[in-house]
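Weekly sync, protein design subgroup
Attendees: M.S., D.O., the rotation student, P.L. (late)

Item 1: inverse folding check
M.S. brought a backbone from last month's batch and wanted to see whether the design step gives back something sensible before we order anything. D.O. pointed out we never logged the input encoding, so this time it goes straight into the notes. Structure tokens as presented (97 positions):
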């Protein structure tokens, strides 16, 4: 999955608008929009700021964005199972906030 799609998905789970997330992450709304469309490759610092603003650990965000072939020690089925479980955890975290 593309990083932009993961950010959109997590942002939606956290019930944050683009404006809210951009403000919390200290990036412009237009820059965030381009990141979410995968039209910009953000620095790791910006990815960290976005993850922090959504209260999602950076490794979790990156794991969700990884393609099955990018995690060589895991099978495609394991990656699919892991990412589904991670999404449930993010959703639960959003519901308890």
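Designed sequence read out in the meeting:
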């Amino acid at each position: 999955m593309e990083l932009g799609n993961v950010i959109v998905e997590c942002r939606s789970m956290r019930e944050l608008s683009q404006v809210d997330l951009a403000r919390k992450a200290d990036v412009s709304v237009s820059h965030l929009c381009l990141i979410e469309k995968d039209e910009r490759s953000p620095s790791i610092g910006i990815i960290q700021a976005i993850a922090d603003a959504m209260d999602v650990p950076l490794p979790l965000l990156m794991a969700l964005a990884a393609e099955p072939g990018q995690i060589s020690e895991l099978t495609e089925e394991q990656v699919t199972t892991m990412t589904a479980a991670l999404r449930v955890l993010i959703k639960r975290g959003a519901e308890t906030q």
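Discussion: The chain has a mean pLDDT of 86. The two ends are 26 Å apart (CA to CA).
Action: P.L. to compare against the previous round before Friday.
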